[in-house]
Amino acid sequence: MSAARPFATRDQLFLNADEVWWSLTEDDWLEAFGAHPKIGEQKAATPQSADAQQWSSQEQSESQKAAGETKAALANGNREYERRFGFIFIICASGKSADEILSALNDRLNNEPSTELRLAAEEQRKITRLRLAKLLEASPA
Length: 141
Description:
- This protein is an all-alpha fold and 141 residues long.
- The protein has a single domain, classed as Oxo-4-hydroxy-4-carboxy-5-ureidoimidazoline decarboxylase (UraD-like, Orthogonal Bundle).
- It is 65% helix and 0% strand.
- Helix 1 runs antiparallel to helix 7.
- The longest helix is centred in the C-terminal third of the chain and has 26 residues.
- It starts with 9 loop residues before the first helix and ends with a helix.
């Protein structure tokens, strides 16, 4: 990404980020997944910057408001998902209710592992795009 700078437009930045993301290996994707806290949790498996922690918290804010029963179902689903696929459940949670997230988690548990890895990678791509937009908004003009 650094070598491709400067970007003339936001769209050019996003397009380049997408191209880089899809050129990475599955191991790279798994490394990126590890930098996210599980849905309903605050800490990621690997260290996060203060900005990343704040963004994760904002993106998952609706799941934090969930009833205890829903939070427990998310925690159980997270554990089952990780057992089934070997990585944490990744979803672009921004704007989604806890019930929507839980429904997506339950649906995705039925996927084949190769299909699910690609779906998780697509969700990570969406998260990256949101965070790039936040970085642009925070940058001085």
